[in-house]
Structure formats: C-alpha cells, structure tokens
Amino acid sequence: MADAMEARPPSAVQKTTFTVLGICCSSEIKLIDRILNHLEGIENVSVNVLAKTATVVHDPAKAPASRIVSALNGAHLNAGIKESGRVQIESRPWPSKSVVASGALLLVALCSYVFPPLIWIALLSVTVGVLDMLRRAVAALRRCVLDINVLMVTAVFGAIGLGDYLEAASIVFLFTLAEWLEAKSTNKARVSLESLLNLAPQTAVIAETGETVHVKDIMINTIVSVKAGELVPVDGAVVAGASTVDESSLTGEFMPVDKEIGSNVWSGTTVLTGFIKVVTMAVAEDSAVARMVKLVEDAQNRRSNMEEFIEQFAKYYTPGVFLVAAGTAIIPWILGVHPLRQWIYLALVLLVIACPCALVISTPVAKACGLSAAAKMGLIFKGGNYLEALAKVKAMAFDKTGTLTEGAFEVVEVQCWEPNANIRQFLHWISSLENMSSHPMARALVEYARVRGVKPSSEVRNFNLIPGGIAGFVDDCYVKIGNAEVALSNGWLRENELRDNEAGITISYVGMVDRCIGYFCLGDQLREEAARAVQKLKKQQIHVIVLTGDSRAAAEHVQKQIGENVQVEAGLSPEGKMKKIAELKETWGLTAMVGDGINDAPALTESDVGVAMGISGSALATETANVALMSNDLRRIPEAVELARSSLRKIYQNVAMSLAVKLLFFGLAFGGLPSLWAAVVADMGTCLLVIFNSMHLLHKYGGRESSTCSSQVPQEQSINVDEFSEPLLSSERRDQDEEAPCLCCKGRSSQRER
C-alpha cells in the first residue's frame, strides 16, 4: 500500500491570477473567499484589493479557470483571467453614464423646492443609479455577507420609505460618484504596482537564427541578441558587443551602466545604446526579475498583523453598528416613543456610519503604497509585517565581507609549505574547494588560479561549511580552509606561528588532517558609501554592530573607517553570528541583520528583519532574508528605515482619521445633527483622505532618484565567456577605462566588471 501511495502522481494544481474589477474595499475579501471556497478543487485564495486581483491555487480538472470566473461574476464582481505581461488597470477618465445620468436627474429634482412636482424625478435618479449597487447587495446577502452595498441599499430604501426622495437620490449619486473617485485616486498606486509585476520580458531573439521566441523556451547557454530600446530578456553575460544599460527597474539606481564582453546583464533591464549578444545564465523562471516579481506579488498578497487586526475589528464592528441601528428603529416603535420617523431616520444615518471601508483600507493601502515605493527604490520586502518591523528596529548588524566591503578581493600573497606539492598543486586544492562556495573571496581565488592555468576539480566530495571556513575532499585529499581559529583548533599551528595581521588583509590557512600546508592573503576595500550609511543609521537612533569571521585587526580597520562609535565583533562563525543576533534582540529589542553570503543565513534567519544584499548575492541568503536589496548601495538601508517609519506613521494616521470620523458622527447622529447625505460624504470622503494620505508615500519615495555614482555597479558573478565570445565590435579591454573619469562625480573611479 505504501508503494501505491508513492507511485500516485501529485495533484496537478496550478496558480491563476484573476482581475476582479468589482472589488471596492477589503470587505469584498470575505465575499470572494466564500464564493470560491465552496467550489471543489480550490486550495488557496489570496486577494489583492489595491491591484484588484485574486490569485487562486486550484485543480484545473475540478475547478477550471472559466468556472472560477463565472462564480465571481455571479456576484457581479466583473472578473476575468489576467493576461500575463500586460498592465490591466481599469482607468475611466469620466464617471459611468449611470452616475452622470443620476447626478443630472438629481439636479433637476432639486428644483422641486421651486416646483414641487419635480420631486418625482428624484425616484428616477435613484432607479438609474442604484441598479448595479442593488445587484451587488443581493449577491452579498445570498452569501450572508454584510458589505457596504447592503448598508447603502438599506439606507436608500429606508429614505424612500420615509418619503425623503431627495435624500435617497443624494445617497445613490454621492456613493457611486465616490466609488469612481476612489478608483481614480488609487489608479496611480495600482499602475505603480502593475509596472513592477510586468517587468519580465515575454519574448527574446535567438542570435543565430533571428527567430523571436517566448522567454520560457530559452535554455541555459543559449545566445540571444538585444538592441537599443529593448529589454534584456534573460540573465546572462555579454559575449559580443557593447552597450549602456538602464538597471533602475531592478536596482533603483538611475545612472546607466556600461556593459562590455564579460559583463553580466539582468532580465528586465533596458539597453539604451549599442547592440549586445548575451549567453543565458539562468532560465526565465529563475531570473532576477522573476524572483523580484514573485517577491512583490507574495508581499502584496500577504496580510500584515495590523491588517488582520483591523479586519477582525471590522468583522464585529459592522454587525454591531447594524444591530444598534436596528434597535434604534425598532425599540422606540415597541415602546411607542414618537416621533417614530425621527428614530428611523437616525437608524439610517447609523447604517451609513456602520460602513467600515475607510477603516478597513487604512492599513492595506498604506502598506501597498509603501511596498511599491520600496520596490521602485530597489528594496523588495517579503510582506507588510517586515515593513512594520523595520520601522521599529532598534539594532542593526552588518556582515563585513561583501556587505560593508566591496567583496572584490585581490590575492596579495600565496605561500605553500607542503614539501610534496608545488604551487600549482596548492592552487588546485584551494580553487577546487573555493569553487564550491559563493563567498566573494572564493571567486577571487578561483580566478587567480585560472589565469595561472590551474582549473578547479569537478570531483569535490563531502563539501561542507565548518565554523570559520570550508572543507571537503579534493582528489581523495581532505582539505580544510579557514581562519586563524581553524588553524589553532585543529592543532596545525601555535599562536606564535601565525602570520602577522595587517589592516585590510584577510588571512586564510590551508590544512590537511594534522598539518598546515600553507596560507593565502586577500585584500578588500570598504564600500565608498558605507561610512555615510552607518552614520545615518546612528542618527536614526539605531545601534549598529559589525559581525565578521575575520581577524580582530581586519575588523578594527573597518571600524576606524566607518566610525569609532560602531561596535565590532570579530572571529565569529555562522553560529556565533546567530548567537550574537539573539543577544542583540535580548538587549535592544527588534534587530535587523544585513548580509550577502551563505554564512550569513543563520543570522538572517535569527534576526527580526533580515536584509540580503545585491542581485547576485547568495540564493540562500536571499531566501532566508525578509528584505532583498537589489543593488549594493548601502545608503538604501537608512532610506528603507525612513520609508518603513513613514509607512507606519501613515497607517496610524489613517486608522486615527477613520475612527475619529466614525466617533464624531456617532455623537452628532444622536444629537440629531447630520443628514444622510452628509454621512455619505463623510464616510466616502474619509476613504479618499486615507487613499491620498497613503499615496504621499509614492510621491515622496517612489520617484526618488538615486544619488549613487554611476561607477557603483551591482556586484556581478564572474563567468568564463571565452567559448562564446565573437568579434562583433572591439573585444579588447582598454586599460585606460579602468581609470576613466566618472561622468557624475568627475573624479577617478575603478569600474572593473567583476
């Protein structure tokens, strides 16, 4: 029986995204959940109110997409299957014909104050404008959902029952007009979000044949051609030509980056000038832009703790106020309290006040605008919870190598002490083991060996990370590479036999079983913007600490450059970094960790907010982190904190505004002051205020230009393009380019492609 179970194929489920243009606010989430969860074959439903989409995981055999669309449209939600790669945003420059007609008829009806028979025109105004609202209210009631349409329709017919035809017509017109204004005002936020989700190119041109194919059909090591004005379709390396590329869609850096043979390019970036041929390094679904799109989609669909709380509050608030309104109308009638008309009118005002739309959208709209603005800056949060958490962070830890430093190591010294091996054999052992690592140091060592004619072995067995280094079998020899602690703990060397430490130099020892067979030294440079970024974090009242597995001398060298007021901890293993994060959380509270490598993964997981650096950083680091920084510009970190704090302030402001208006009108209602139309204006007006207040985040941060120098290009993975390169333009690297003047700062800069 067990074998039969193992042989059974997995359920053929798929994920489909639907546009649901009939979504008004978060109250429709419950309606959509109830509609779809009653269908067989539905596994998960995730609704994005701002983007007006529903992402459904379903079994197409039991619940085909067409059936899901029909079920949603049965509730008049105007649903359809979202077409991939296209921005699908409902943007009506003018209100619908029914809204305009309802408003025009209301204007005529207002003349009844002069000519009373025109009052009947108000009923015609109601009839024209209420039909769509009535259909949605009936659909909601059929599923036992008390939404805004039910409340408004009840208020309209209640006003008609009281003979207040003008009030009824005013409610219909103001509500439908406010719906249009709300849709129009959120359109910019939705367009901003959709532009992020549609970054991935759909087609590519095969260089050899000139054939245009879908990117999903492109395999690794395929060569594609890209000309000026086109999007780079795949992640890869340039093998012919030269160009200038705009990478702002991914990194948020607005300065174009020059690309030549050997340079890495990323899917979704734009070729501004020139013509290049690119060899594919990853399939479309594993590209940087595909990962970014998935992160953005998941973040938008994942509800934060604040959203959950507000929705739970609204879940009881609306029925509660509905019962109060019903009691206000029924109890005076039972007790014979007069005038009864006044109590019914008050109940209708309470019904309008019962609408929780402004309160319910107060958090998701601010969250969505914050996440969209962050993505425009090259910061991808994996959910609103992490945006809120970063706003409250009290301590932040940085990895040193590849995070605070460039990670562009240069081998400055190699010493082989093994009498039975020459330097080439020594480099073979080192490069073979380091070739299995994603650490920035590893790339430098492999390249150092390659230019000396030494190729790494493909037969490395039992490779694993050890505290302070790496180990594995190379050609049946068990080799370890690590820091001074590794050399001492394994008994290879005594304290006085270690090489003297130098500022800015990293020393690693190589050993076999019980002896040290040599060492190598690498140099690294601090990132130009590191000191400014760290000091800005200090001004934001955040405790900053540097965690490194490097020597105390190397750590103190960095400390002198970024500021003596920054704490440093040296000689830490991955587990040691994780323990230090736990201590920081206990001492300071919410703690963030910024890193880029596999050895940072435990600390990133332990932290409250983990930030992974760079497009080409370790996949494990990106997977375990909560925020992905698409560029290597450290100034984005304090900007992210600033954005997170602004987003949290907007959420608090929105909630406060929504509750204040509700409480004010509750008080005024029992004082007999507000009319029905005034209650509608206040309720829908608060929705608009909440939206406009949230969209300020997009205006302030979403369009912010980078202050990054054009010489600060994303760190790239090295790739051997010798077997692909061809002489399209000049393939010779000009030595003088390494010291060419930087266009934006007019100074000297090193722009080596790594």
From TrEMBL:
Per the UniProt record, one Pfam family is E1-E2_ATPase
Per the record, the domain of life is Eukaryota
The record's GO CC annotations read: membrane
* Claim: Secreted is one of the keywords in the record: no
> What reaction is this protein's catalytic activity?
Cd(2+)(in) + ATP + H2O = Cd(2+)(out) + ADP + phosphate + H(+)
Q: Which InterPro entries match?
A: ATPase_P-typ_cyto_dom_N, ATPase_P-typ_P_site, ATPase_P-typ_TM_dom_sf, ATPase_P-typ_transduc_dom_A_sf, ATPase_P-type_domA, Cation_Transport_ATPase_IB, HAD-like_sf, HAD_sf
Q: What is this protein called?
A: Cd(2+)-exporting ATPase
